[in-house]
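If you are new to this repository, start here. Below is one unmodified record pulled from the training split, so you can see the exact layout before writing a loader.
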Amino acid sequence: MKYIDEYRDAKLVKQTAKELKQLVTKPWVLMEICGGQTHAIMRYGIDQLLPPEIELVHGPGCPVCVTPLELIDKALAIASRPDVIFTSYGDMLRVPGSSEDLFSIRASGGDVRVVYSPLDAVKIAQEYQDKEVVFFAIGFETTAPANVMSVLQASSLGLSNYSILVSHVCVPPAMEAILSSPENRVQAFLAAGHVCAVMGYWEYAPISEQYQVPIVVTGFEPVDIMQGILATVKQLEEGQAKAANAYMRAVSFEGNKPAQAVINKVFHQVDRKWRGIGTIPMSGWGLQPEYADFDAEKRFNVEEIQTEESPLCIAGQILQGLKKPGDCSAFGQECTPEHPLGATMVSNEGACAAYYRYRLDLTKVC
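And here is the target side for that same chain:
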């Protein structure tokens, strides 16, 4: 545990908090754009250690949370079919669609299975060649390499019964959408370390320059997050706006080039709708034409499904850093982890779930 414990050193965290207190001279709004970081911040009380001038807001960094409602309904329509084995990561099963969730489909007799890798889904397709096997391919750049490898493996095995329901989104276009909004409050970003381990942070440099905001790649342990905040605030106080790396043990500027190459082989950029936010141009990935046979959306003819969000849920405003969970009238009342209105209350990386778990008394923190 040495290489984990040293990044949970309480003395280092408190020392960094002291440095921040001595450094900061004016209010700053920082957005972490990773649900894992949001939960670490809440779990370890990092936001409560910061000087009052520094406000953390929570961005669209949870892949479950930003998966649009119509994609959930498309998944439900496919999973309901008797000829389908629908596979997914476990946290997607409780995400509410318009009227039910994947757990409900399974309870009604649908063959819905939790897998830990899309390659597990490929193995199921090998074993049950009389069934259509579908994998719910959600995520940011982090999960893309494994998802595209499942397509390549199924192709090489000649599996005509395997397909993926794609809901992949990319971080840089979301950053630009937030920064270009007239309501934007964000003055700097803490970038997600695992995304950058795959993609590097070369894409962030033009965004920093264009919008004059620091973007600092940050890890997930308390010391990582505090050091990322410190590096960000130093830039803000000095009037700088650069893409920088505070997670050097895992991230390089160029990232994982072989992973990027295999992503580009199978995926191409497409417009993508984000739950609660709307369509962001060229913010997602879809299958290249040569791999269209593996597109579950087309295979099962569910492309035309349209939906409307619950008017009670303010997840979209939370994901843009405009509001916090405590600002929602339904939080902890109509919306709880047992009866969620939106995905931000369901996911292990959702901001609402983090506040519910660690900060139910929001009057002290919002």
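Two things worth knowing about this chain: The chain has a mean pLDDT of 92. Residues 65-170+255-299 form a domain with the Rossmann fold fold (CATH 3.40.50.11740).
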